Amino acid sequence: MRKQILIVGAGFSGMWSALSAARLAEGNADIDITVIAPQPELRVRPRFYESAVRSLVAPLQPLFDVTGVNFLRGTVSQIDAAARRVSWRDESGTVQQQRYDRLILASGSHVNRSQVAGVAEHAFDLDQLESAEVLEQHLNGLAQRPDSPTRNTVVVCGGGFTGIEMATELPARLREILGTQAKTRVVVIERGPQPAARFSEELRNVIIEASTELGVEWKVNAEVEQVTAEGVTLKDGQTIAAQTVIWTVGVQANDLTAQIDAPRDRQGRLHVNAQLQVIGHEEIYATGDVAYAATDDSGNHALMTCQHAIQLGKFAGNNAAASLLDIAPLPYRQENYVTCLDLGAWGAVYSEGWDQQVKLTRAEAKKLKVSIVSELIYPPAADKATAFRIADPLAPFV
């Protein structure tokens, strides 16, 4: 019987898993590689804070066609690890089943909107293309509303990377939408004791400098108690009136991880070994945002970023195919860690290492940021030789 490598998800980790597996299995007619996802396109989620969000996608079907990857359009609803099969719902709503010999779970993550009252009903997010589109339409529609401080105020809940990039993008974007005469206000809610509290002092100081110049306010030592149509209420009783509240906190691994009887971290990510196999399930690989994976021997673990998802995908695909071909697997390692944070009209900041040493700022860093998000992280051309060369886990990530 033909062997089946089944990949759930077509994000950064799913796409690269498929290409890496196809690369190693090339010429072996007994192995099929299949991706199940809602659509054959890569949605460039790291850019969803930008405008024209609908354009931030890249087609995958031509790439899958030239590399021999099968694509099934649908959504996986159940994993039966004992029977080695998944149930999935196709475009018509029909539930179907697909067996596998190796499963690569690359189903991504989502923002948890259920833990704080009113978030689901009244807050916007950048979690998925559809919700980012809703936010963009809302922002563009503000100009049709009566001018008021409430209309002109945006509250961003969360001072992580997504929150910072959204907040620093907003001053210029609001001026474009509302006009330069409108007195706009952008406020970031940060539960830590200082702005960008989770980052290194050097990186934090750059973020504070950019925020000050852009006029972005930070509310520190603050947590949201409730979101309403009128704004937010903080746990200390303060209120901020705003017609726009953006939620960027509480990211969790896709719920499918809970269907696998294996250890998970507090974000729901599955613990994996060095080969990215789920603990206790050698036939299942986890990658991207659903994998709790050590990047090195110093205690660091992959973050929920495309930087880690791309490399995790390459190793997961390679190792799943290797296990069917009796080839030695490659232990996942990603010792180099960098950050490149967009800071709106101020520029950007680039740092290296887990201690986040700042190397570039302002225009220099912005040029690098644009190159990364508009070129480096996009899929390769629909050319098999090029795709397979880049899909090699040991190839330089350039």
UniProtKB/TrEMBL annotation:
User: SUPFAM superfamilies given for it?
Assistant: FAD/NAD(P)-binding domain
The residues forming the signal peptide are 1-21
Q: Does the keyword NAD apply?
A: yes
This entry's Gene Ontology molecular function terms read:
NADH dehydrogenase activity
Checking Gene3D superfamilies in the record gives: 3.50.50.100
The residue ranges of the FAD/NAD(P)-binding domain are 4-312
Alphabetically list the UniProt keywords. FAD, Flavoprotein, NAD, Oxidoreductase, Signal
The record, for InterPro entries, names: FAD/NAD-bd_sf, FAD/NAD-binding_dom, NDH-2
Q: Which family does it belong to?
A: Belongs to the NADH dehydrogenase family.
Q: Write the protein's name.
A: FAD-dependent oxidoreductase
What organism does this protein naturally occur in?
Answer: Pantoea coffeiphila
